[in-house]
Amino acid sequence: MTALIVALALFISLLALLAVISAAETAIHSARDLEKELLAAGEGAVAERLREITSNPFRQLHRTLVLSAALNLALATLGVWIVTGPLKLLGWNPWLASSLLFTATVILGDIVPKFFAVRSPSGVLLASLRLLHPLRVLLDPLTAFTERMADLLLRKLVPHHVKTRLRVTRDEFETLVEMRQEQGLLNEDEGAMILEALDIEDLTVRDCMIPRVDLALVSAEDSDTRVQAVLERSAGRFVVIYGETPDSVLGIIDASGWKLAGRPAWRSLLRTPAFVPETMPVLEALGQHLQNSPLPLIIVDEYGGLEGMITRREIADWLLYDAAPWHGEATEIRELGHGRYLLDGGTRLDHLRDELGLEIEETAIDTIGGLVFTQLGHIPKAGERLPIAGADVKVRRVVRARILELELRLPARHQEQEAGKE
């Protein structure tokens, strides 16, 4: 009888520890959302540990999984001994006793702790951190050892042709990103940036180039004073040098490099860039040209005319447009209130579809300025209006033949905002 009491006491102690570990595993998934709460509560030391978890949550999860596996093994071994030993001697049916122990272990050691962790993740995490942090000295070496042994067994036992991983589809990857966001392992901005990066497979150089109208262009036949003046006031890094017409590009000059070199004769710094078609995929352009070259690519249309220019920075800007805009940079879409938005003429139509939900038909046109110009059929004047996909669009600024700024009004969005106030 004494042996049974000791065994049950040990079983209950291990079960309580398993419950803490199970709750900690669930709470770790919510670590990102709890950091602000803990900092506001003044828990400086604990918040510091929490930042350690958010920076590498998988490391903490490995600790809990290793400890959980060890506890489950100990509980299973002890449970078998209790069922086949003391309880059997007392006349208990082994099947009934094992079923009761298993049910108690699942409910008290897994389901109930996870329920409390979901209800109060901050309290559970604070308690579990005090347990896991001192044990890291033992758990980290054990975790590293198990990972090395698992890798070794995979290399030795699994045939090479079986190790080849199947290609993950886009839908599967997007689902995985959404799951990580729900678990708290990725925040909204990180998830958006990853999904943006997925689109790079379908991206062409034309999608993220600097258009021709925004390039600094100067003729090689101009005077040296004229060329130097363009280099001096160039807002971008590169200046395009052309021959008889802007379509006959002779080369480019790095304006920043020219200034740093002491403003030498510009012809000594003239470089010949690579020319690529506007339909070239961005990944191909990166792999063949931009990866190992600081020079930009000149983009040409099907007739060989100058379309624009692209560098690695434009590709990075495209990827980071939503998740990490440049400090101080005005966004293409600015909300004015009452369902009104201020748009840059170069705002991409896909951004309007994503951010404002406009159902604009897919066309060969990329920007809102180009769409307005095409639908009007003439160079618009400031103040002209036209309907686009249920929105009222007003031209605000036009310079020469280029639309610089527009105002877009969504009547439905304004009505929703007014209804929300009521």
What characteristics describe this protein?
422 residues, 4 domains, 5-stranded antiparallel beta sheet, 4-stranded mixed beta sheet, 17 helices
Write a structural description.
With about 425 residues, the chain is α+β, with helices and mostly antiparallel strands. The protein contains 17 helices and twelve strands. The protein has four domains: about 1-165, no CATH class; about 170-200, no CATH class; about 205-320, Roll (CBS-domain), CATH 3.10.580; about 335-420, Uridine Diphospho-n-acetylenolpyruvylglucosamine Reductase, domain 3. The protein has helices spanning about 1-30, 30-40, 45-55, 55-85, 85-90, 95-120, 120-155, 160-165, 170-185, 190-200, 225-235, 255-260, 280-290, 310-320, 350-355, 370-375, 410-420; strands at about 210, 215-220, 240, 250-255, 275, 295-300, 305-310, 335, 340-345, 385-390, 390-400, 400-410. Helix 3 packs across helix 4 and helix 6 (about 95-120) packs across helix 7 (about 120-155). The radius of gyration is 32 Å and the shape is elongated. The N and C termini lie far apart (about 70 Å).
